[in-house]
Please model this.
Amino acid sequence: MRHNIQPNLIKTWTRLKRCALFDVVKFLIVILALVLLTLRGSQRLGYNWQWYLVPRYIFTIENARFVPGPLLQGIMITFRIAGLSLLCSCLFGLVAALFNLSNSLIARTVARLYVELIRNTPLLVQLFFIYFVLAPIFGVGRLAAGVLALSLFEGAYAAEIFRAGIVSIHKGQWEAAYSLGLNSFDMYFRVILPQAVRRVLPPLTSQAISLIKDSALVSTIAIYDLTMQGQAIIAETFLTFEIWFTIAAMYLLVTVALSLVVSVMENRLRLEA
Amino acid sequence: MSGVKEQHLGDPIILVEVVHKTYPGGVRALQGVSLIVHRREVVVVVGPSGSGKSTFLRCLNGLEAIDRGTIVIDGIPLDDKKEHRLEVRKEVGMVFQSFNLFPHMTVMENINLAQRRVRKRSKKEATAYTLELLNKVGMAEKVDRSQSAQRRPATARSHRQGSGHGSESHAL
Model:
């Protein structure tokens, strides 16, 4: 009898292991353990958690009307800065990449200098330099200074990503474009870049996510983005951990949403070849 | 060549005089190649692999720079001038050994591209001509296929310029 039961048990066990529900249960157990550990840890911390105070800083309902709190107002500013910087950094990156690959020595030198100078110095210093030194000269506001610093910084990284994508396109594609008599503009914008951009979408997404998180640095030049709003609330209420965790969760929501959008895009644009 | 045949052919269209080409690695691909091709003439270049057939054809539309000699196509000298190279490439069609179709475009877009951007044809004109060409190679029903790495669309693309005169050469 035993000899018959054992293989059956093993079979049932393997089937159970393959079942999706089994994975869900394992996942829930791990999450539960994490929550218990966190709770125990936070009790030992001796910190007076006041999560119930947090929602009012995100939004409030007054007279049955939705009123965004300081954190929501902050994230709107973060959106504006990150969105503008994303567009500009792609532009800077593309121009720098094309300069870097051009035949002109001057263009190559300019691109090289830009990328090396920006990549090898801290963003905070660049931000201060642009805001305190350049902005007064050209008379631009703090928002523009913040966007400019972020786009220059992320653009230097984007330049290397674009360059890698462009040189990864097979030689035959260039030759086919030449042999058709396309000029340089058409060759780049109709043949090479459409293929290169698809290839570099994953690293570009990482760069965009970095940009959203780096945008927190504009709080140092008193732009009331998500981070700055959070710091202001903490200064008033001493809800240090609650607010920082909430802010982290809000950044996480935005960046995860961005990743999802890009992965949908990637699937749509995937080359069959 | 008999005199009768020459009358039948027409004026010389491709003139190649003592062309030399050495690759940077030191491989001497072409040594003193000379050739005259007339209008309506079909020329086949035959030889063992590595004998320079592909190099020769790549020189004919300026994909490879030559070290010495001259190449003149339909009166346009292939020299260092970028405009001359573009001018020649407008008229010279080429099918690559590995086809090199553009993978992000449909068959239709592949063949329309040069007609629209180089010949400046309208979309309607280009599409009509593309369908005519695809009919010739027997794949008109596959215009919207995004990838068909086959010789037929590649051949059609090399013809995209319109057969005003028969100067297209094919590296098959």
User: Anything to note?
Assistant: The domain at 75-272 of chain A is CATH 1.10.3720.10 (MetI-like fold). The CA atoms of residues 118 and 153 of chain A lie 6 Å apart. The interface with chain B takes residues 170, 172-173, 175-176, 178-183, 186, 190-191, 194-195, 198, 271-273 of chain A (CB under 8 Å).
